[in-house]
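Q: What changes when magnesium ion is included in the input?
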Amino acid sequence: MIPTQVTLVEVGPRDGLQNEAQPVSAAHKIELVQRLQAAGLREIEAASFVSPKWVPQMASSAEVMAGIARREGVRYSVLTPNMKGLEGALAGRADEVVVFGAASEAFSQRNINCSIAESIERFRPVVAAAHAAGVKVRAAISCALGCPYQGEVTPDEVERVARLMKDIGVDHCGVADTIGVGTPRRAQAALERALRHFPLAEVSGHFHDTYGQALANIYACLELGVHTFDTSVAGLGGCPYAKGATGNVATEDVVFMLHGMGVATGIDLDALVDAGAYISGVLGRAPVSRAGKALLARRAAAAGA
Ligand code: HMG
Ligand code: MG
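A: The predicted holo structure follows.
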């Protein structure tokens, strides 16, 4: 038995674009978010309030958050590594903030310049202040299935951080395969550890597709009953502190798989493919999504016939 309904958290505007070397204007980011919500996405990670010296592409986050024509029923989330980030998030009227830690000490140092223990102390006031403002808090646990610096990461290490996140009051736990090395049974083992501390509805999977395992990992997590996954339109993305890692699994591919299994997402695949083609056009390349490319080719063939 797998869930009959799945929520996809679209992370393309944030995870997808943060690693882009070429400038992407705030206007293009805003247009992308609006196309995604028009396609039926109800959870959109729209921006990131991090140091612009660390991640220059996200420097326009305040402008992006101010420019989106908000749609009722859509939750807009942003990354907040510390209180300064939270201030930006609240000023930008984010509905949800993401504190991002790691299951690996080495990655924590490289990504957010502190140890795991220090990160939890930084997140503690962020969680309290977000809750005081009525804002939900999601945690991301990076490198839950492997680390570019440390190598192997065990389920024990994932559980330790999940427990710490729970202790400081985080509402939701996202388990992230930052470098895409996870395989289905290992993905299940990592998410099972998060499920010891968070309810089923508050655990999600975030799978980068570097080794082509993401769809299989999502299917394995569906078998656990997990029904929330982060995905990135057109397969955009990567992390500036995980060199060589590709984007998240493409939203189009996940929607194609889920709809093919009779699982509802509320997403209009054709409109989603258009959003993927739009941002890929802005970036001057073809979408990475296999389903997106296939559907565009089918349309072109139909138009030519
Ligand atoms: P730090 O240098 O240790 O911070 O960086 P600091 O508190 O010492 O401050 C240094 C400077 O940064 C100061 O400015 C602060 O004002 C500024 P200065 O006085 O030098 O001009 N600063 C900020 N500016 C804007 N917004 C802020 C902020 N905080 C400090 N929030 C810090 C620590 C966390 C800020 C830094 O390491 C950072 O920004 N890291 C971001 C890394 C990042 O964004 N990585 C990618 C996102 S995570 C990801 O992609 C993984 C995920 O997708 C899941 C997965 O796949 O694994 C979520
Ligand atoms: Mg990521």
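Observations recorded in class: Residues 116-132 form the longest helix (17 residues).
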